[in-house]
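ARCHIVE CARD
Drawer: 12
Card no.: 0347
Subject: one protein chain, sequence and derived structure
Cross-reference: see card 0346
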Amino acid sequence: MIVKEIEIDAPPEVVFAYLTDPTKMVQWLGLLAELEPRPGGIFRVDANGRDVLRGTFVEVVPYSRVVFTWGYEDPAHRVPAGSTTVTIELEAKGAGSRLRLVHSDLPEGPAREGHDQGWTHYLARLAIAAAGGDPGDDRLADPAVRHG
């Protein structure tokens, strides 16, 4: 299991949109996103033109909690589509937010290590974007860099 906590200089209402709105999602994660933020709705993100993440939303509580399954569409990938679960909780902290991410059911080894590094990278990008900044080009969106 991976657990990450960060503070973001934006209220939960703003951060929540970056987790559920496809246009905002791709500002920090991926090149293209198809999101239906409701239980059973599609979670699909083209990470880099080759690695496509796919799952479904499990729980969506406006401004406080988003849960979705996660994995890769490529059947040869060691983390199959929908095989893991990502839980993101938001809590108001002053004028900003505390975000807690838990990614469970990842296999031991390189997949878990890759996701641990990936979430550190992407949550930093989320913090910049949600606060109104430009996180810049995503080095992990380079197709030469294989995710998790």
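Annotation on reverse: The mean pLDDT is 94. The first helix runs from residue 12 to 20.
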